[in-house]
Specification:
The complex is a heterodimer. By secondary structure, chain A is an alpha/beta fold. Chain A has 7 helices and 19 strands. In chain A, strands 1, 2, 3, 4, 5, 6 and 19 form a 7-stranded mixed β-sheet that branches. In chain A, strands 8-15-9-10-11 form a 5-stranded parallel β-sheet. Chain B has one domain: 3-Layer(aba) Sandwich (Glutaredoxin), CATH 3.40.30. The chains are: A alpha/beta, B alpha/beta.
């Protein structure tokens, strides 16, 4: 079959697009390769999305978004897209499990965590180096953890980790945080959190599991290797140093700036009938609230595009 | 899937003969929960050759760390009690798990 719209990505942008498209009675398919919800589904506390205050966890918010999109008839499927062909009027996306055809496409692939980029990081990912606090916090009950980064995510996740860890140290390359003031205040008040300013991690070490890591003071150049407390025997590093757009699939096909898809105010890319929404596009604020707004606009514009370009 | 815990892990995995798959997960790990139905589906295809088991690490974190598991999801395969392969964290997908399984059956 040919869908009216195929949405690649099941985070807030894709789910909002799915809701709006389905409500417009479009045949709608949302394709997600991992867990629905994108980055926000691994976030414990979402305090800045209007209406989320009574039940602010990422998973509950996403569950409601999925239910709402499905209630109006959006279909969802689990598949990883490996190839796209946008050269014809009917667009084709190929996944590992199947091929999907659509009159319009909404790219809502989001963003993935940026890595530290230091030796040992790849080998020790999931072995003491983590990018997901809700996934891995439980390993570190009564142990010590380090959080690298100074933005909203880093500081919020540091606060979350204090529910488990004995001690949380935020390692930040500058001498002040970038996180929202309200989040900073909470962190500064938390007795379990301390800060290491002007510091970066330059190497992580271990044989199959994180055993030590090297930090460097960027002002003095001084380096130091840190080991777990002897009684603990283990510690963890959580990395929140920003994100990268998940757009490799569209390299050379869609106009981008530094990997972020360029759209106009109507979420249109350079290819007619192909729209982008959420964290993967050039914009000034990447949050759930802007992702869902993008998704709604993209869906409405996709409907308009179909009305103008396809006969009944 | 057979439910592992602190008390039966030794007997069911480390002392077991043949192939055992262990799905390390926790209730707060959303990627784990998204992956689980796919693992259960694979059990239908490969369950006669591999014993499929799962361990909730939130009740057995010391045990998990002892198995060098410190980031979820982890799908590991043991043969005669030795861990012989695993897919970890961001690399764990239904495709990568099935590829790993196919190496051993």
């Amino acid at each position: 079959m040919v869908y009216d719209v195929v949405i690649i990505g099941g985070g807030p942008a894709g789910l909002a697009a799915g809701l709006y498209a389905a409500r417009a009675k479009m045949e709608t398919l949302i394709i997600e390769k991992d867990a629905f919800g994108g980055q926000i589904v691994t976030t414990d506390d979402v305090e800045n999305y209007p209406g989320s205050i009574h039940e602010p966890t990422g998973p509950s918010l996403i569950q409601r978004m999925v239910e709402q999109a499905e209630a109006f008839g959006a279909k969802k499927i689990s598949d990883a897209i490996v190839e796209v062909d946008f050269s014809q009027k009917i667009k084709v996306v190929k996944g590992k499990d199947g091929e999907y055809k659509a009159k319009s496409i909404i790219i809502a692939t989001g963003a993935v965590p940026r890595l530290i980029g230091c030796p040992g990081e790849k080998e020790l990912t999931g072995r003491g180096v983590s990018y997901c606090a809700t996934c891995d916090a439980a390993f570190f009950e009564e142990l010590e953890v380090f959080v690298m980064g100074g933005g909203d995510s880093a500081v919020e996740e540091a606060i979350y980790l204090t529910k488990f860890a004995r001690k949380v140290t935020v390692i930040h390359r500058r001498d002040e945080l970038r996180a929202a003031k309200s989040i900073q205040e909470k962190a500064f008040k938390n007795p379990k959190i301390s800060f290491m300013w002007d510091t970066v991690i330059t190497e992580v070490k271990g044989d199959g599991i994180l055993e030590s890591f090297i930090i460097k003071n960027v002002k003095t150049g001084e380096e130091k290797e840190l080991f777990p407390d002897e009684d603990d025997g283990a510690f963890g590093i959580f990395v929140f140093v920003g994100t990268l757009p998940a757009t490799e699939l569209f390299d050379g096909l869609i106009e981008m700036d530094n990997g972020y898809i360029i759209t106009d105010d109507n979420m249109k890319t350079n290819i007619p009938g192909v729209f982008a929404a959420g964290d993967n596009r050039v914009k000034s604020l990447r949050q759930v609230v802007t992702a869902t707004a993008d998704g709604a606009i993209a869906a409405v514009q996709a409907e308009k595009y179909i009305d103008e370009n396809f006969e009944e | 899937m057979f439910e592992l815990n602190k008390d039966n892990f030794e007997a069911e995995v480390l002392q077991a003969e043949g192939l055992v798959l262990v799905d390390y997960w926790s209730p707060s790990c959303e990627p784990c929960k998204a992956l689980m139905p796919h693992i259960e589906k694979m059990m239908e295809s490969y369950g006669d050759k591999i014993k499929f088991t799962g361990l909730d690490i939130s009740k057995a974190r010391r045990l998990a760390i002892g198995q060098k598991v410190m980031g979820l999801p982890v799908i590991a395969i043991y043969k005669d009690g030795e861990k012989i392969d695993e897919v970890v964290a961001g690399d764990a997908s239904k495709e990568s798990v099935e590829e790993m399984i196919k190496k051993f059956v």
